[in-house]
Design goal:
single chain; 255 residues; alpha/beta; eight-stranded parallel beta barrel; 35% helix
Length: 255
């Protein structure tokens, strides 16, 4: 299971929101490139970026920081937030990103997701952000009536590379992941699922390992890394060690 550090960009700085609330912002660094390089040195094999300005406004704000990060790093970088058109997705891919994540358009323009997945195989990810099981859009400001599991089922056969599922109620809280919701998403999806939200300690990370046979291939970690509750290098080693110690884990163990 891949541990993916997150950098959330707001006005060019690294921040974290509490449960997606733009009025509850914690600022961690004014130098996102230095922060990205730090995660790479500690062993990250992929970096996750969120353009919070783009998610809220639907227009690019942090492209200079994004380009600087992709140019500085040797590992693949993915980004979500405000990607709501074919031109915008292609523009971001030209910045050196490995993957772009589509969230709001998955609800509003589903055909666009399929089109992009066909044009850019392996580079399109659908981000499904849910609250009480239903998909939220536009930077979590608006709530839809669409079930997160239904959306996962629909798009996982559209040629996308993966689904990132975020439980809004746990995001930024350090209270632990919503394992029940994550299991439901993994069972609904036919492509790899990346978990996001709630990781607060090493035990939370290890709690995801039994879901790996169901298709949970990675986990995005933000605040716990910045707060020092999780050491990235140690976490990567712990995940590998526990997998080796229990190589017989199968989906039958999860019943």
């Amino acid at each position: 299971m891949e541990i993916i550090p997150a950098i959330d960009l707001l006005d060019g700085a690294c921040v974290r929101l509490h449960q997606g609330d733009y009025d509850q912002v914690t600022r961690f660094s004014d130098d996102p490139v230095a922060q990205a390089l730090s995660w790479q040195r500690q062993g990250a094999t992929r970096l996750h970026l969120v353009d919070l300005d783009g998610a809220k406004r639907g227009e690019p704000v942090n492209d200079a920081a994004v380009r600087a990060i992709t140019e500085a790093l040797d590992i693949p970088v993915q980004l979500g937030g405000g990607v709501r058109s074919l031109a915008r997705a292609q523009e971001l891919l030209s910045c050196g990103l490995d993957r772009v994540i589509l969230g709001t358009v998955a609800i509003e323009q589903p055909d666009l997701v399929t089109q992009l997945a066909e044009q850019h195989p392996g580079q399109i990810v659908v981000g499904i952000d849910a609250k009480e099981g239903k998909v939220a859009t536009r930077g979590w400001i608006e709530q839809s009536d669409v079930l997160a599991t239904d959306l996962a089922d629909r798009f996982s056969i559209a040629g996308i590379a993966a689904i990132i599922t975020t439980d809004i109620a746990t995001d930024g809280t350090l209270a632990g992941p919503n394992l029940t919701a994550l299991r439901e998403m993994a069972e609904a999806s036919h492509v790899p699922v990346i978990a996001s939200g709630g990781i607060g300690c090493m035990a939370d990370l290890l709690s995801l390992l039994p879901l790996e046979p169901l298709g949970v291939s990675g986990v995005i970690v933000g605040r716990a890394l910045y707060d020092g509750r999780v050491d990235l290098a140690e976490a990567i080693q712990a995940i590998s060690r526990d997998r080796i110690q229990d190589p017989t884990m199968t989906s039958s163990n999860l019943a």
